[in-house]
Hints:
By secondary structure, this protein is an all-alpha fold. Helix content is 81%, strand content 0%. The chain has two domains: 1-41, no CATH class; 44-252, MetI-like (MetI-like fold), CATH 1.10.3720.10. Helix 3 runs antiparallel to helix 4 and helix 6 packs across helix 8.
Amino acid sequence: MRLLPKLSSIGPTILGIAGLFVVWWAGAWLIASNPSTASFSDFAPGPTLNRFWDIVTSGDIITMSLPSLYRIGVGLLWACIIGLPLGILIGANKLARATTNIPFQFLRMISPLAWMPIAVLAFETWDAAIIFLVAIAAVWPVTFATANGLRKVDPSWFKVARNLGAKPWHMLFVVVLPAIAQDVLTGIRLALGVAWIVLVPAEYLGVTSGLGYAINDARDTIEYDLLAAVVLVIGLIGFALDYTFMKMIERYSWVRED
């Protein structure tokens, strides 16, 4: 009987995946049945899954993915190094919040890819330029989530901590960070999603590795089954990263009672 709730929760998931494959298959069938688009028939599930299996068994999936994971990891790390203290400053200081509101909102609305020409000129290596684009995409969710989380903390917590003789570092690590942990982790999760989306087109730059490069190369060599397989890899890795971070939020955060 305990299996029934689990089966009832798995059912919609299976139905959603099946529906996605039906739409994929139907779209591929329409492409293959049209003489003007029949050359793109390798986007169909059959050829794509066969090629996906090939890159998994050959180890090419690791060769493609590791450079991308490195770039997004370093870019996200820089976003946290910059965004966390900046968010704490904005959340704690009214003057800083008023001063930075319009400039930061303006910069936030600029597409990270619009910085691509500047990144190419400013950095010596292609990797550094890509990491900059990832970082500038991810820094805003981290900054604003941190600031909003701090603004929601009960001011009496800080008053009690000061009355107990808490030093600034104690205040930061014992009061502030635990209080805003859930907001910060949620911001980093959002930043990860934005950064992953930006990473692939950013890798169209002069690098010769990564998932974005693999897509570009497959397009140039007219290997549409490989192109679709790499797209599948991008989706699976992105889903796995997001799911992992969601579980981290559930495991390492707590719900603040207002």
